[in-house]
Design a protein that fits this description.
Blueprint (H helix, E strand, L loop, with lengths): L1 E7 L3 H12 L3 E8 L6 H15 L4 E3 L15 H4 L22 H11 L4 E5 L4 H9 L9 E5 L18 H5 L1 H8 L5 E4 L1 H4 L3 E2 L1 H10 L4 H19 L4 E2 L2 H9 L4 E10 L9 E4 L16 E7 L1 H12 L3
Parallel strand pairs: 1-2, 1-4, 2-3, 4-5, 5-6, 6-11
Antiparallel strand pairs: 7-8, 9-10, 9-11
Helix pairs in contact: 1-10, 1-11, 4-5, 5-7, 9-10
The structure holds calcium ion.
The site of calcium ion has 8 residues, from loops.
Length: 318
């Protein structure tokens, strides 16, 4: 059993990824920690509690902070995810499910200490909570099993950014946190736009999911109407790219991804803010802020058809 804490800003693709993890028999979602980005921290936390209640999850939900480390606030991505973060489907005002008394980064620290070597952190939003956790308790680097991040872009397959020409939104939203998390002493795999924009789900595929998954199909179809319209208006796509579910899929089926290892730094200010830069060679330069960074893993290719088939099989219980 693969135990995870899912750090997330639900978020339409976040919800799809969480449902993939929940539906997968090999994964136990121990905790859900919320961050801000796709919606405000209030809305992403309400949405996490809503998903927990609606789908009968056992995971504890812990609310995160509402500001990036550099204190530069940006507006929630309501154009992509709707005002409520879940594509403006109707949501109850009150969710009668309790929150963890711990703030997200303390929840991460405490849970890793209680279950050393057992838990993978899967982060599909800004990396603020993970950065606060590893800064407060660097010893958790030895307690975590693995860290999997959806974020960043390294130029493979022509993908360099989605919020700016050279930055992916999660990393841009808290670049200091991303640089801390990627360069901490723990094993990180980055599943970035290089692969997430190689997989697309079409509207016909989503209709098939609606028909074949009694438990999740209608919900996934409903929340993705807004998201698909954004991608169609913005990029002319039929359907959308598959961002956050790629991080869960990497946990489930790493063999459908190609990866490589190297040193990574994040540009934290200026026009290239949020840009992720990968150094794959061992050459040491006279000035080299990559040389002391730990070697981490990035995903550079994926098999999109196998991806979509596995997502379908897990969600539809085949
Ligand atoms: Ca997300």
């Amino acid at each position: 059993m693969k135990k995870i804490i899912f750090d997330t800003d639900p978020g339409i693709d976040d919800a799809m990824a969480l449902l993939l993890a929940h539906a997968c028999q090999d994964i136990e979602v121990v905790g859900i920690t919320t961050t801000f980005g796709n919606a405000s921290i209030e809305n992403t936390t309400r949405n996490a509690l809503y998903l927990k209640q609606k789908f009968g999850m056992h995971a504890e939900v812990a609310k995160g902070v509402n500001t990036p480390l550099d204190q530069v606030k940006t507006e929630p991505a309501t154009l992509v995810h709707g005002d409520n973060g879940l594509g403006n489907i109707e949501l109850p005002d009150q969710i009668n499910t309790p929150l963890s008394p711990l703030i997200a980064h303390d929840y991460i620290v405490e849970t890793l200490k209680k279950q050393p070597g057992e838990i993978t952190l899967v982060a599909v939003g800004r990396l603020t909570n993970l950065a606060l956790a590893i800064e407060k308790a660097p010893e958790i680097g030895k307690l975590v099993k693995e860290v999997i991040i959806m974020g960043g872009a390294f130029g493979h397959n022509g993908h360099t950014g989605n919020l700016t020409p050279f930055a992916e939104a999660n990393v841009y939203g808290d670049p200091l946190a991303a640089d801390i998390v990627i360069n901490a002493d723990w094993p990180v795999t980055i599943v970035g736009l290089d692969v997430t924009q190689q997989t697309q789900m079409s509207n016909a595929y989503l209709e098939k999911v609606r028909t074949h998954s009694e438990k999740y199909g209608q919900f996934i179809y409903d929340i993705t109407r807004f998201y698909a319209k954004f991608y169609n208006d913005d990029l002319g796509l039929d359907g959308f790219y598959v961002h956050d579910s790629s991080a869960i899929m990497y946990l489930v089926s790493p063999e459908i991804f190609t990866t490589k290892q190297g040193h990574i730094r994040v540009i934290t200010e200026g026009p290239a803010k949020g840009h992720t830069l990968f150094k794959g060679s061992n050459r040491v330069f006279p000035i080299d802020e990559w040389a002391t960074a730990p070697k981490q893993t990035i995903a550079i290719n994926v098999e999109p058809q196998t991806f979509n088939q596995r997502y379908f099989d897990i969600i539809c219980g085949n």
